[in-house]
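Hi support team,

I submitted a single chain yesterday and got back a structure, but I'm not sure I'm reading the token output correctly. Could someone confirm the output below corresponds to the sequence I sent? I've pasted both exactly as they appear in my results page.

Thanks,
R.
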Amino acid sequence: MMLQSTEYVPQQWDYFVHHYDDLERQKKDTKMVYRKTDGEKYVGLSPPSDADPLGILYPRAGTLGGCSTHNAMISVYPFDNDWKYIQKITGDRTWAPSKMRNYFKKLEDCQYLPSSLAGHGYSGWLKVSLTSLHLVIEDQKLLSLVLSAGTAMGKVRFGHAPT
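Hi R., thanks for writing in. Yes, this is the structure output for that exact sequence:
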């Protein structure tokens, strides 16, 4: 429900940040947000001439639990080369990929794979599961994004079965 929660007005705190001190350089960012004279927001490279530049949206939540109420809660395990790089620049062998995998296995409670598969933990405190695809179908904005991404990648063609 992350997409809906970031737009839930009673807890929505919209902060805007600038990645550059130079406003003209900042305006070249496609994610730049402007407030139009009617109060609506415009995002993009061609704002109305009288729009007020706000910055890049950095959504925050004003509620018990703070921003954890609207974070996507995505878990990603790094590639071994990432751990090797950290090990190399720190000179610390505890960053070795095998050691880091063991730490991850201790904290992970993998709920989307059979417990017989190696490389994952199944009794840690961090529950990791897959999102129900019903959420995608029920959320028209999210469904539109998924279909658009698939179409752009040549994986979805309306009226034809994927090949």
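A quick pointer for reading it: The mean pLDDT is 85. Let us know if anything else looks off.

Best,
Support desk
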